[in-house]
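input
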Amino acid sequence: MILAAATLGQRELVRFFRQKNRVIGALAPPLIFWLLLGMGFSGSFRHEGSLSYLQYFFPGTVVMVVLFAAIFSTISIIEDRKEGFLQSVLVSPAPRASIALGKIWGGSAIAFLHAVFFLLLSPWIGAHLTPAGALYGAAILAGISFGLTALGFLIAWRMDSTQGFHSVMNLFLMPLWFLSGAVFPVATAPAWLKGLMMANPLTYGVEALRSALFPPAAPSAASPVLCLSIILAFAAVMFILSVFVCARQEAP
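output
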């Protein structure tokens, strides 16, 4: 099982490094969005701490980078189906769980690398990342990357076209991101919206990243252990559902 998953994951990484334009496609839109929105709202934004809007919006933009990378990486499932590769994997003796694990592991590794590239900007906006904060932030990012890639796998598995996949992903993931506290604080949201945001697992990921990057100015409202537990639970649930839909697929 492990060998099959590692082989599929390695295939995703090799495909990624051969398609350099995917890096630009996943990094450029969030970067532009962060700069334009961050500078546009900088004069009117007020935070309980001392964060500027560029600083406040930065962790949410990192999660957006992961989201874009997860979308791009799980498109390969649709491409593999059209090329016949997925059918050959399904008839192989490899367990279905290893197929899901390999595709998700490879995609989440790519999403994690995208986030690390974007985090190289953090020193220029006054981030104070301690060694403990870096380890904690890496664990949060790994969980978010795995969970969002597994969600992308779950949606892409039943899709026949990339157009339909993009439509469904935008329908699910963009509201999930907007309701994560990335754009506006949970504390200032209306009561009904606050309930949706508190039920969103990404809210705890964004909150954890913000407290890791700006510990003096943005203490987390939720405990670090709670944030990490929710993110890991989200990743685990998405993976279990992915294995379930993969196991139900009949071999051609």
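quick obs: Residues 2-248 form one domain.
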